Amino acid sequence: MATQTQPPAGTGTAPALQRHRGFFEVMQDWITTVDHKKIGIMYITYALIFLLVAGVEALLIRIQLAVPNNTFVSPEVFNRLFTMHGTTMVFFVGMPILFGFGNYLVPLMVGARDMAFPRLNAFSFWISAFGGMLLYFSYFAGSGLYGAGTAPDVGWFAYAPLTARVFSPGHSTDYWTFSIFLSGIGSIGTALNIVATTLCMRCPGMKLNRMPLLVWLYLVTSGLVFVTISPLTAAQIMLCIDRYLGGHFFDTQAGGSAVLWMHFFWIFGHPEVYILVLPAFAFANEIIPVFSRKAIFGYPAMVAATVGIGFISLSVWAHHMFTVGMGPGPNAFFTFSTMVIAVPTGIKIFNWLATLWGGNIHFTVPMMFSIAFLFQFLIAGLTGIILSVSPFDWQLGNSYFVVAHFHYVLVGAILFMIFAAFYYWYPKMSGRMLSNALGKWHFWLFFIGFHLTFDFMHVPGLMGMPRRIYTYEADRGWGFWNLIVSSGAIFQAVAVLIFAYNLVVSYFKGETAGPDPWDAWTLEWSTSSPPPSYNFAVIPTVESRRPLWDLKHPEEPDSQYE
Amino acid sequence: MSFAATQTTVEGTLPISWSGHEMALGALNFFAHLTRLPAHNPAPLPALFHALLSALLIDQPPTSLFAPEATPAHYIFDLSMLVLAICTAIFLVVAGLLAYALVRFRHRRGFTVREPAQIYGSTQVELSWTVIPILIVVVLFLATARVIFVTENAPHPSNALNVVVIGHQYWWEYRYPKLGIVTANELHVPVSDPHHTRPTYLTMSSADTDHSFWVPRLAGKMDVIPNKVNVMWIDPEKAGLFLGQCAQYCGVEHAKMLIRVYADAPADFAKWAAEQARPAVQDPSAAEGRAVFERNACINCHTISGTLAHGTFGPNLSHLASRDTIASGSVPLNPANLRAFIDDPAHFKPGVLMPAMHLNQHDLDAVTKYLMTLH
Questions:
Q1: How far is A406 from chain B (nearest CA, A)?
Q2: pTM value surpassing 0.80
Q3: Do B116 and A360 touch (CB under 8 A)?
Q4: Confidence at B144, pLDDT banded by 50, 70, 90
Q5: In this complex, do B223 and A323 lie within 8 Å of one another by their Cβ atoms?
Q6: How confident is the model at residue B111 (pLDDT cuts 50, 70, 90)?
Q7: Using one digit for the tens of pLDDT, what is the confidence trace for A3-32?
Q8: Strand pairing of B171-176 and B161-168?
Q9: What is the mean pLDDT of residues A337-353?
Q10: Which residue has better confidence, B159 or B25?
C-alpha cells in the first residue's frame, strides 16, 4: 500500500521517500504495525480468505443437496461442512470484515490520526486471527488421541447436550469452543477501541450530532458487542467446565438444562445479527446519499432508529426458541418484541427511500449493490415478520424457510453492502479504482445467483424441509427446488472469483483514484488515497455533518440548515 | 378479516379456555368480536391461495404447510394467510415506491449539472412512517397472540388419547401407557372427526440429544428435549398417513429420523391397539431364528414380549412385522431390506447406533424369518 502515494491535496500530505523494500521488511512492517489502516486491511484480507474457504464449504453443501438421496459426501462430512460454514461465516468473515472497515474508516471519518488504543487494536486482530486458525486446525487435530482428525460437527449454535463428551468425543468441539472464545476477546477489544475513538478522538467541531452516520452505527454495534459477547464467552467456559471438570450446567443426564444453553447462546446470537447488519446499514448511509447527490434524509431519526434497534435487539432472543415449549406467555412476549423491532428498521428503509426521492441517482457499481440491498433487505425484513408470528414459526422454525430468511439478511443485505463498501472505499485504501466492467459482471452474476439460490430456498421450507439434513427423501417434492437453489450457487461462485480477480488486478493496473473520486462529503475523502500513516497533516475542523459539502458549496453550506 | 371467521368455526369443536389469562386476554377477545364474521362465511384468503397454487400447477407435497388436516395446523394456516397478505401488501407498496424513485430520479446523461435540492428531513412524513407500522404491528400481534393462546391453552378432554413420545438418536419411541403398547417410528392415532372428537396428546421428552417432532399437516413442531417434558396435541380430521421428520439437529443421522403418523378410523385404531397389546407371536416354524436372536446381543437393546429380550435402548420389536417401514421410516419393511439392515445397519442409515452383528448367512436368514413373523 505504502508504495502508492498521491500528490498532496487539501489537508493531505507530502509523499514519503520511496525506496524498494525486501519481503521480510514488508512483512515486519505489517506484522508489527499499530496503524489502524493497516490493521483494517489485514482484518479485511483475513476475512476474504475465510470467505473463500466458507464459500467452498457452501458449494459442497449445495452439491450434496442438489438431488435427493445423494451420496456426494458422507453424513459426517456434511455435518462438519455446515458447522464450519456457519461458524466461519459469522465469526471469521462477518465480524472481521466489518471490524476491518470500521478500523479503517472510523478514525478517518472523525478526523483522528489513529484509534484510541493502537496496540490494543493490533492485539485484537491477532488474537481473532489466531482463533480462526485454531478452528481450522481442528481438521488435523480434532480427534486428538481418538484417531484421525475431524472438524466440529455440532452446528454453529452447538445445542447442548450434543456438545457433551458422551455425544461429542474427541476435541473437535473444544476447538470450536476455544476459537470462538478467542475471537470474542478480539471483538471486545476492537469494540472498546471504536467506542473510545468515537467518544474521545473526534476533531474540533465534530459534535456527536455531526458525526457521520457510519460512525454512529459503529458506536451502537460496538456497544452491542460489549453486552452480547459476554454471555457467549460465559457459556463457552461453562461448556468447558462441563466437558472437563465434571460440571453439569448443560448435562441433561445429571439434571442440567439444554434450554439454558439456548438462552445463553441466543442472547448473544440474535443481537449478533444486528452487530453484523448495523455496519451494513452504516455503509448504505454513506453510499446512498453520495450517489443520490443528496444529504441523508432524517439524520436524527436514523440515529434514534439505530439506538432503538440496539436496545430492542437485546429483548428478542427467544424468538429462536418458539418451539422449545416456553409456554404461551413468553411466546407472546417475544413475538411482540420481535415485531416491534420492525418499526425502527422500517424507518431506516423509508429514510433511504426519501434520500433517493428527488435526487440525481448515479448507477455506479457501489450504488447498484446498495440498491439491490434495499430491495433484498425489504424482503428479508418481511420474512422476518413472518417468522416472528410464533405459531407460523412452529411450522417454519428450523426449516429451509429460516435458512433462506437469514441468508437473505446475511448475503442479500450484509454481503451486498460489503461488496458496495469495497467498490466505494477500495480507491481510498489502494489509490486505485476497481475495474468498472468487472464490477458490473460481478454485480449481475452475483445478483442472478443470489436470487436463484435464496428466493427458491424459501419453497422447500414451506414444503416441510428441515435444515441440517444431509439428504432427503425423493417423494417429498423438494428435489426440483433444491436443484435450482444449487444452480444459483455456481453463479455466485463465479461472481466472487471475478471480484477477487478485480481486487488483485486493479491494485496493479487500476485507474488512479485521486483523493476524492466520488465527489463525496465526509472527511476520509479530504486526505490522499491511500492516506499517509498519520491521516491528516493538519487536524481538520468541521462545522456540519458534511464538511466537504461545505467546502465545495460555500454559497449554501450544511451548517445553515442543521 | 376473514381469518377470524375460520377461527370461530373451529372453536366450535374446541372451546377456548382463557383461565388464568382473563385480564390480559380481555383485549384479545374484544378484538376477536370486532373482527368476527358470520360463521358460514367461507374464508376467502385460503381459498384464493389454493386457487393460486393450482393455477401455478404447484402440487402440494406430503409435508406441505399449506395442506392442513388437523386443528392446530388449520389455526396456523389461517393465520399465515393473514400474515402473508399483509407482508405482500407492504412489499408491493414499498418496492413500488423504490422502483418509481429509481426510474424517476435517475441521472440522465448530459442533463443536470447542479446538485439537486438538499432536503434534510420532514417531521410529518417521518411521523407517518413511524405510526403506520406501529398500527400494523399491533394488528399482527393481536391476531398472533390469539392463536398462541388458543393452541397452547386448549383444554385437555377426558377422552383424549395420551401418547408418550421419546426421541432417540435416531428413532422415535411411542408409548401408550393406558393401552399397554410400546412401539417405534410409526405413530397410530385415532381420527378426530366433528362427531367423535378425540384429540391425541403427545407428552414428549428425549433420551439423549435434542430432537423436534414435526408433522406439518397436523401441527407445528415441538422440540423434544432431554430433562424437559413438552406437550402438544393433534386431531387428524381424516384417515391417512402423515409424514414428517425430526427438525432439530441431533447428530450424524438426523436426516433419516423420519416420522410416520397413521390416523386410523376409530374402529381401525381399536383393532390396531388390541393387536399391539397382545404378546409377540410365537411361530414354531421360526423357533430357530428366535434362538439366534436370544443368544446374540440383540436382546441387550431390543424387547420382544414373551422372550428373553428386554432391552430398551433400541426399538421394541414385539410387533415389528405389523409396521410398513424399518430404519425410522427410511426403507419399506420386506425380508430383503430387513436382512440387509441386520447385516449392516449403516447401509441404510450411516451413523445408526446399532452395530453390525456379523451373523453368518444362515443365522441372518433365520433371524429375518423370525422377525417377519412378529405381526
A1: 17
A2: yes
A3: yes
A4: very high
A5: yes
A6: low
A7: 444 444 444 444 455 567 888 999 999 999
A8: antiparallel
A9: 95
A10: B159
Distance CA B1, CA A560 (A): 50
Is B89's pLDDT higher than 60?
A: yes
pLDDT tens per residue, range A136-173: 999 888 776 555 568 899 999 999 999 999 999 888 99
The cell numbers describing A536, all together, are 491528516
Q: B-contacting residues of A 312-351, CB under 8 Å?
A: 323-325, 327-328, 331-332, 335-336, 339-340, 342-343, 346-347, 349-351
Check for a shared fold between B2-152 and B161-258. no
**Residues A338 and A292: beta-carbon distance below 8 Å:** no
pLDDT of residue A381: 96
Which residues in chain B are closer than 8 Å to A295, comparing Cβ atoms? 118-120
Contact: A335, B148; criterion CB under 8 Å: yes
Q: Is B2-152 a CATH 1.10.287.90 domain? A: yes
- Neighboring chain B residues of A162 at a CB cutoff of 8 Å: 209-210, 249-251
The pLDDT-based confidence of A505 (bands split at 50, 70, 90) is: very high
Is the Cβ–Cβ distance between B357 and B346 less than 8 Å? no
Whether the CB-CB separation of A529 and A513 falls below 8 Å is answered with yes
Task: Please answer yes or no on whether B116 and A252 come within 8 Å at the CB atom.
Answer: no
Could you tell me which of B257, B230, B75 has the C-alpha nearest to residue A324? B230
Nearest residue, CB atoms, B118 vs list A295, A397, A475 = A295
Strands B171-176 and B181-184: antiparallel
CATH code linked to domain B284-372: 2.60.40.420
Contacts of A239 (CB under 8 A, 6+ apart): A158, A160, A163, A173, A177, A249, A250, A261
Which domains are present in chain A? 31-560 (1.20.210.10)
Q: What is the ipTM of this complex?
A: 0.91
Domain B161-258, architecture per CATH = Sandwich (2.60)
Chain A interface test: which of B31, B56, B144 (most A C-beta within 10 Å): B144
Would you list the domain boundaries of chain B? 2-152, 161-258, 284-372
